[in-house]
Amino acid sequence: MLLSCQPVAKGMPKGLSVDVIVDAAFGVLDEQGIDGLTVRAVADRLQVKAPALYWHVRNKQQLLDEMGTRVWRQIAATATDPDGAPSWWDACLAYARSARAGLLAHRDGARSFSGTYLTDDTVLVDQERRLSWMRDQGFSVEAAVDIFVLLTGFVVGYCIEEQERQQAPDDRYSLARRDTRVGVQEHPLVAAAGRRLFGDPDAHFEGLVRVLLAGIATLRDG
Fold first, then answer.
1. Contact 184, 191 (CB under 8 A)
2. Average of pLDDT values for 55-82?
3. Environment class of residue 120 by beta-carbon count within 10 Å: exposed (0-12), middle (13-18) or buried (19+)?
4. What per-residue confidence (pLDDT) applies to 83?
5. What's the fold here for domain 1-58?
6. In the chain, % of residues over pLDDT 90
7. How many alpha carbons fall within 13 Å on the CB side of residue 23?
8. How many CB atoms lie within 10 A of CB 97?
9. pLDDT per residue over 130-183, tens digit each?
10. Architecture of domain 73-219
11. What is the C-alpha to C-alpha distance for residues 194 and 101, in angstroms, rounded to an integer?
12. What's phi and psi for 51, nearest 5 deg?
């Protein structure tokens, strides 16, 4: 990765850096979504030619990696610090909440930043302290990794579905429209299921995370 603190090479556009490019990329993403996010669109937003960006990001995937790294860095920063968490349950719940908030902060965030390559080594190094804390809570390193995979996979999947509903161009996911489609009187159980699926997303998320944590408790040694 080319860092903005490096000396400016001959021909490298002045004023551009990875951070500046990433800021502009988030603007494009929030306005146009992942399908509209291209290196050319970011260059247009910065009022430069697309080749100027290639001094800092080689292609769209590297751009997404830089954007994803910023998002996951912020998620790690806003999650409860292990040293200040009352228990592993509270720490895991805080992580799930922070991950959801971070992915929902940008249009198509869950689709865009799941599976991105972390370009900031400090995000990885910080896991040493968190893994050590989880071990003190009674989890092996293997169990701690499985917990992270379970929570992250659930949050990403939940947020993808949640954002698809939020960003729908019409009211296709509204409860009123669903009731009309299924017929509340004739199919009361289907109508009740719709209220569970498309009702309060915050409450639904919290409930599902707690179910997941109850299962995670079985991974604890002893």
1. yes
2. 92
3. middle
4. 74
5. Arc Repressor Mutant, subunit A (1.10.10)
6. 72
7. 6
8. 19
9. 999 999 999 999 999 999 999 999 999 999 999 999 998 888 888 888 888 888
10. Orthogonal Bundle (1.10)
11. 24
12. -60, -25
